[in-house]
Design brief:
The protein is of the alpha+beta class. The chain has one domain. 29% of the residues lie in helices and 16% in strands. It contains four helices and four strands, in the order ααβββαβα. The protein has helices at residues 9-21, 27-30, 85-93, 113-122; strands at 46-51, 61-66, 73-78, 102-103. A four-stranded antiparallel beta sheet has the order 1-2-3-4, with no helix packed on it. A hairpin with a 6-residue loop joins strand 2 and strand 3 (73-78). The longest helix is centred in the first third of the chain and has 13 residues, at 9-21. It is elongated and about 65 Å long. It starts with 8 loop residues before the first helix and ends with a helix.
């Protein structure tokens, strides 16, 4: 008899959620509200956590999400959160609760973190 045939989605869901919790993901990540359905995301909505390195979003921390309630997928960004990997690690260790992430689809295509930094550098910080 194949044991996999007796495993329910509920069994996998509970195990998956416990496994994600074991990674000690900070509350500011899992307690974000879905911008589509306004429910708290929770651990099962999380797909990836990372640091953006493309020119437009360089330095943004991001969380890839597929909301467990409404099944809408998107990235949440914490704009200009990090200047290096050490800051990113510190951010992940942070217990701050007031960090509000912004959905990628609401970030204007004209915003460009790298260009802003270059202009600031050229103009001596002005």
């Amino acid at each position: 008899m194949d044991k996999n045939k007796n495993i329910s989605f509920k069994d996998v869901k509970q195990h998956h959620e416990q496994l994600i919790k074991s990674y000690n993901i900070p509350d500011w990540v899992s307690k974000q509200e879905c911008p589509k359905c306004n429910k708290q995301l929770g651990f099962l909505s999380l797909r990836a956590i990372g640091l953006k390195l493309n020119a437009q979003h360089i330095g943004n921390a991001f969380v890839e999400v597929c909301c467990q309630h409404c099944c809408f997928g998107y990235d949440l960004h914490l704009k200009n959160a990090c200047k290096n990997i050490g800051e990113f690690i510190d951010l992940l260790k942070s217990n701050k609760t007031n960090l509000k992430l912004e959905p990628d689809y609401l970030i204007s295509n004209s915003e460009n973190n790298l260009v802003k930094d270059i202009v600031k550098d050229i103009s001596k910080g002005e």
